[in-house]
Automatic annotation (TrEMBL), chain A:
One of its GO terms (molecular function) is protoheme IX farnesyltransferase activity. The lineage of its organism: Eukaryota, Metazoa, Chordata, Craniata, Vertebrata. It is a multi-pass membrane protein. It comes from Ciccaba nigrolineata. PROSITE patterns: UBIA. This is Protoheme IX farnesyltransferase, mitochondrial.
From TrEMBL, chain B:
It is found in: Mitochondrion inner membrane. Keywords: Membrane, Mitochondrion, Mitochondrion inner membrane, Transit peptide. It comes from the Eukaryota. The gene is Apopt1. One of its GO terms (cellular component) is mitochondrial inner membrane. This is APOP1 protein. GO terms for biological process: intrinsic apoptotic signaling pathway. It is a peripheral membrane protein.
Amino acid sequence: GLFVWHLKNTEIRQIPCRFVQLCHVANDRLITFQYFNFLKRMYVTQCNKDLSQRAKPKSDSVASPFRELQQLDQEKKVIHKIRPISPVHQPLSETSIRNEVREMKSAAETEDSVTPVRAESKEDRQWKEMKLQLNDLPGILARLSKIKLTALVVSTASAGFAMAPVPFDLTCFLIASLGTGLASCAANSINQFFEVPFDSNMNRTKNRPLVRGQISPLLAVCFAASCGVPGIALLTLGVNPLTGALGAFNIFLYTCCYTPMKRMSIANTWVGAVVGAIPPVMGWTAATGSLDAGALLLGGILYSWQFPHFNALSWGLREDYSRGGYCMMSVTHPGLCRRVALRHCLALIGLSTVAPLLDITTWTFPIISLPINLYISYLGFRFYRDADRSSSRKLFFCSLWHLPLLLLVMFTCKKSFLEKEDKGDLLGESHGRAMEIRLP
Amino acid sequence: PPAHSHNDWIGPPDKHSNLRPVIFYVSPEESPLERRLREARQEAQACDQRFWARHNRAFRQEKEEFIYSRLKAKGLEMRDETGQKATLNAEEMADFYKDFLSKNFRKHMQYNRDWYKRNFTITYLMGQVALARALRWLRWKKNNV
């Protein structure tokens, strides 16, 4: 969901002027059809002398820019991205254009190994050199490591750290966060490395760096290793071995269990939920050095949260999953999919109630979190009953704000044994009823 | 791709397989190792292309047949009054998706195994080639210092 949104909202800057970009153009430049056509006419008059003026520029199909590119390449001009204004597929005009182009070309036309028109025009339709562009590298690596997901993972780990009933140690916190972040980057990169042909076939994932050839598989693996090894080392040596072991185990679980299982059995969702539950546990063990009930409770909350989140997301992707060969509950066992989502929404209410019993939070936590949990359970129930796209989307988007809010409320209701952290102070004010118990 | 380029070129996604075709650069001084890598990549590309083109075509076809049969059962035509193609909603299509997935399960299992094997081999070869090139470059540097 989040990723889809981001892809659809990428900036589109139109170039109003009608000059040809002579040098290496940055990825985000887009050229409209009209002026592309102008370009072609300009080309025709300059290079080839035998004109075939196009009377109706609007009838250009998207295929023509590609042929034009071969001509342009000869003159060493490269246009990188083309965005048609009218993405209408007109096969008849395509053939007429093809004939005209053949007349225009003086050199023997190289074998046309590429592809016709696509209605979605957000992807590049040019042939690109498979050379690593260093100035694009940060962006590429960010997408390879799924940086936004990594950020979410690190924040759940920090929530686990913050909830642990020990004095707050800033260096330990920073090292644990960094280590978790690096481990997550490594795991995500390996996941993308394993799934290239499948990602190419699904709309949500077809713009990933490995799919687009922006980075070689070797480099992806090296990047993963160079994140994973220092990350785990940092956790083991800089924090404690338990956290390091959990981190390594999580990477293994995600890359070697979850990723292959996605194509084998619906049980992958449960494995994936464990993968999501481990980071807060890691945060807790980083702070305290041991696996207490509190760690397991936090892990349990994250575990339960994964189900409404993922099941709602997967409901809208059934066609892609089916074609791509992914075994997901939403495709094979839709009733189970919705039941499980609802079940776990309700479980969240239960888990929130257990929190004060384990001395992690005060009793205000289940009270304040009740409306939040009830709301997501209500949406879960609607999803269960209606089983349609709108209810799944509502549930998914709710899960996106539900989790941070729940963790925040949990933190403000934390039973502090020692001096409060500064964060707690600021947040405590927003919840008038939050009580802090101070032991003498 | 232009004649002077020394790199591979990757193109837009193929209409049938959704995979991006790669044109491989053949260096005149290609070592046997590099040749093995290139051939492995070409073969992998061909296999993937074959599989996905066929698979996607089958999906599209079976989807059309399913829609047609369901519409017929409901007594509707393929196109309504405005000439728009009639579609079934997601709930009705769900049966088809489930069916298609289970029918192709074995095929996917086989493909997965092959894909993982190919992926690892190619990446390993890439590693070997990179190492060989690095050593060659170091030797050249030493000789030219």
